[in-house]
Design a protein that fits this description.
Blueprint (H helix, E strand, L loop, with lengths): L6 E6 L5 E7 L4 E7 L11 H22 L13 E8 L14 E8 L19 E6 L5 E2 L7 E6 L15 H4 L19 E3 L6 E3 L8 E8 L5 E5 L2 E6 L5 E5 L3 E9 L4 E9 L1
Parallel strand pairs: 10-16
Antiparallel strand pairs: 1-2, 2-3, 4-5, 6-7, 6-8, 9-11, 11-14, 12-13, 12-15, 15-16
Length: about 280
Amino acid sequence: MQRPTLAWKTGTSYGFRDAWAIGVAPRYLIGIWIGRPDGTPVSGQFGLASAAPLLLQVHDLLVNRDSQRGIALPIDPQPASVGVAAICWPLGQPLDSRDPNCRRQRFAWTLDGTTPPTLPAQDQPLGLGLQESLWVNAAGQRVDASCPGATAQSLALWPAPLEPWLPRRERRSARLPAVDPQCPPQHVPVAAPLSIVGVREGDRLRRPSGSAEPLRLRLSALGGSGQRWWFVDGQPIAETSADALFTHAFARNGQYQLSVLDESGQTARVEFSLSD
C-alpha cells in the first residue's frame, strides 16, 4: 500500500538532550520526543537518526489501522487559486533556468497566479539592493551609460548579510563585472580590499597564565567603505564606523571565526583559536 503524504521535520537540542520529529499527515499530527526526563545527554541521539524512524513507524501503524477499519483519507482538494511555480533565487521570481540571474531554482506555492518576492526590497539592509542596474560593453565590462555600445543590464545579487557565507563565485565582488578602464562608470566607489586588524588568520591565542577572565581583543578593519558589521561564528556582535576601533571579549576556549562586512558588500574573515 502506498504511504500517504507525510511532511516532517526533525530537531536536536544542544548536547544531545532532546531528539525531535514532528510530522503532518492528512489525518494526523504526530510528535516524537526522545530523551531523558532529567535532561541528561544521550550521546549520538539526534532527530534524524532516532526520532524520525519512530515517527514513520507510528504513522504507518495509524494508516494501517485506518485501512483495516475502512476509514478513507479525508478529501482535501487544492483550491483553484493555489498553484505552483518554478522560481529563481535570489529574487524569488519566475525566470528561465538559463537566465544568468537564476542562481538557484526552487518551486514555490502561488496564490491567484502571484509569486511574491522571496525577500522584499524594504527588508534588505545596508542600503544594498537585490538588483543592480549597470551598463556593459560588448566584452561584458562595466562602462558608463554614455560609452559607445553600452547596453543596460540588470544583475541579481544575494542579500548583503549573506556575503560571509556565500561561495566566492556568488559574492558581489565576483558577480559584478570588471570595470572597463577606458570608459569607466562615473560613480564606481574606489575602495581598498577589506581586512581585519587585531587578530590574524590561524592565530593561536592564550590567556595570561592563571587568568580565567575572557580575552579582550581590540579590533578594527582597513580598506572597504562605509559602516562595518561584525560577526563571531555567524552571530552579530558590533556595528562600527569606517575607522572605529572596538573591543570584544572572547570567553570560551576553542575555534572562532571572525568576519566583517562593509556597505559595499566586501567581506573579510579570519579564523583563530583560544586556549588557557
